[in-house]
Write a structure and sequence with these properties.
The protein is of the alpha/beta class. 49% of the residues lie in helices and 15% in strands. The protein has a six-stranded parallel sheet, with helices on both faces. Strands 5-4-8-10 form a four-stranded antiparallel sheet, with no helix packed on it. Strand 6 and strand 7 form a beta hairpin. Helix 12 crosses helix 13 and helix 17 runs antiparallel to helix 19. It binds one RNA strand through helix 7, strand 10, helix 8, helix 11 and strand 16.
RNA sequence: GCCGGCGUAGUUCAAUGGUAGAACAGAGGACUCAUAAGCCUCAAACAAUGGUCCGAUUCCAUUCGCCGGCACCA
């Protein structure tokens, strides 16, 4: 009995208080490449993303927008769902919202499963009346709220706390396995966090102060703090706990689980979430990959600086596959990368217009003119892509490999000169172009996970018996 | 302050204890199937100092410079 390997992958769930960020688009694209690659190897894949919709910030953002919170989060959830089309994500994508009924039930169930590690304690914090919330250090300057310039008051309230400190040893043990965090130096960072000591953290808020959250089971006065709620989504999307025998068992317990997250997420994903899983007696995550950030002009993207580059803008200017190309080829998987519009244009022209697009154009033009029959030669010659690059998140190198194939094909045309030979010996010219078509097919196969649409287009052209020359795949941008 | 990372051609990155690779940008050349694209050639770099070593860009130390994280921030 041969059973398919099952593979689970999830992004983090973005908070819906702003438009989708290019960094999140990158995370989705990375996930999608892994998904398409794994599927091409015949594995069964569960691909998850979603939206995190509870919490004070969202409640405030809705108020500010003059909307009720339900319709506000609904609007944003749809915005994020649109990314699927925008970025050409695999059809198999699952989408979980933390306001989904099944998720709310799961969060409450997980709470109960962790009950032995949850206790009541006085929470003391600096509360800003203007913000209607407790402030953290970064919200303050000179002991005053940075927004309202007023002194916050010291307030106490009863909260539920999670015994995070209890799991220091278990977490260190978990972190001994080099596979659990990629890249490895982030794992060392996580180990250091634990060694510095963990404090129990509050996992609930008083309802009177914040009502927009999942009710704490057995305590009418409290709602869950967003973290506890949101992290549960990674398993609620699998039908846990109602359907423990189904997808949860197949993908989480018996499959390989991979989470993707930004580099600022270590504490939450690799420590808090893992401690929660330990407490609940659920299998821990097999691997978490932390990517870097995308900056612009040497600085973080921010509206006030006016250097924000949005996924919408990229798609509109370059198209979906080109957007995927630009991010995967040029964004460093684990380090921060600086991106500017000028650089994007350069990358587009050199890689896609001059490189891939031009190659497709010149080969297919000859195939059309010389009436080359390609269909029969394609299958035999092309090699199926199998590469450790994607397993190791080395997308740049995977791309380098493809572009070397492109260059080799360009070189071959130059050296064998089929366009010249056609005038004297059409038979040989036809044979050369036929070989080139095979190379092109191979390139299309490699492009499959990266640029699915382009890959299909090229294959279709090659199979097109009429050999009609297609339109330019990537028209050159002129400055 | 603590922890971590980084400093390689104009730019973005790579590798390596023993001639430092590439891509983009730049200069020149021959061609024409192609999106004035492609091909060939050229020019261009190991932050500084000290140490270990037969030999260091690579290991160690120091200095200078840059960046990130340091918890309830999604």
């Amino acid at each position: 009995m041969s059973e398919k390997k099952s593979f689970y992958i999830t992004t983090t769930l973005p908070y819906v208080n702003a438009e989708p960020h290019i960094g999140f688009a990158y995370e989705l694209i990375v996930a999608d490449v892994v998904v398409r690659y794994r599927e091409s190897l015949g594995e069964e894949v569960f691909f998850n993303t979603g939206t995190d919709e509870h919490g004070q910030k969202i409640f405030n953002a809705a108020e500010k927008a003059g909307e009720n919170v339900e319709s506000y989060v609904e609007h944003y959830a749809q915005e994020f769902k649109k990314l699927k089309e925008l970025l050409c994500l695999s059809d198999s994508l699952n989408f979980i919202r933390t306001t989904d009924e099944r998720h709310i039930k799961a969060a409450q169930k997980l709470w109960q499963r962790c009950k032995k590690d949850i206790y009541e304690k006085e929470f003391e914090g600096l509360y800003c009346v203007g913000c209607e919330r407790f402030l953290v250090q970064r919200d303050m300057a000179d002991d005053k709220c940075v927004i309202h310039h007023t002194k916050p008051q010291l307030l106490k309230e009863k909260n539920w706390f999670f015994k995070f400190s209890k799991y220091e040893k278990d977490l260190l043990k978990y972190l001994e396995n080099p596979d659990v965090i990629t890249p490895d130096w982030r794992r060392k960072e996580a180990v250091n966090f634990v060694k510095e000591g963990l404090e129990d953290f509050s996992i609930s808020r008083e309802k009177g102060r914040l009502s927009w959250g999942v009710p704490v089971p057995g305590d009418e006065t409290q709602v869950m703090y967003v973290w506890f709620d949101a992290l549960t989504s990674y398993i609620s999307t699998l039908g846990w706990p109602d359907n423990e025998e189904g997808n949860f068992k197949k993908f989480w317990e018996n499959g390989y689980t991979l989470q993707l997250a930004g580099k600022d997420q270590i504490r939450f994903q690799s420590l808090m979430w893992q401690a929660m899983l330990m407490s609940a007696g659920i299998k821990k995550t097999d691997q978490i990959f932390y990517h870097g950030f995308i900056n612009s002009g040497g600085q973080k993207m921010s509206k006030s600086l006016g250097n924000v580059i949005s996924p919408y803008e990229l798609e509109k200017k370059y198209g979906t596959d080109a957007t995927r190309y630009l991010l995967l080829r040029h964004v460093h998987p684990t380090e921060d990368t600086d991106v500017t519009r000028e650089r994007l244009d350069e990358w587009y022209n050199s890689g896609l217009a001059n490189g891939l697009g031009n190659l497709v154009s010149r080969i297919l033009t000859m195939a059309e003119k010389y009436a080359v029959s390609t269909v029969d030669t394609i299958e035999s010659g092309a090699l199926l892509p199998k590469s450790h690059y994607i397993d190791n998140f080395n997308f740049n190198e995977y791309m380098e490999h493809i572009w070397k194939l492109i260059q080799a094909a360009d070189k071959e045309i130059q050296e064998k000169e089929p366009y010249k030979k056609y005038k004297t010996d059409p038979h040989i010219a036809t044979k050369i172009v036929s070989e080139l078509c095979t190379h092109l097919y191979e390139i299309a196969l490699w492009l499959g996970p990266i640029m699915p649409d382009t890959s299909e287009k090229i294959k279709n052209y090659l199979y097109n018996p009429k050999k009609e020359k297609p339109e330019n795949l990537f028209p050159r941008l002129n400055a």
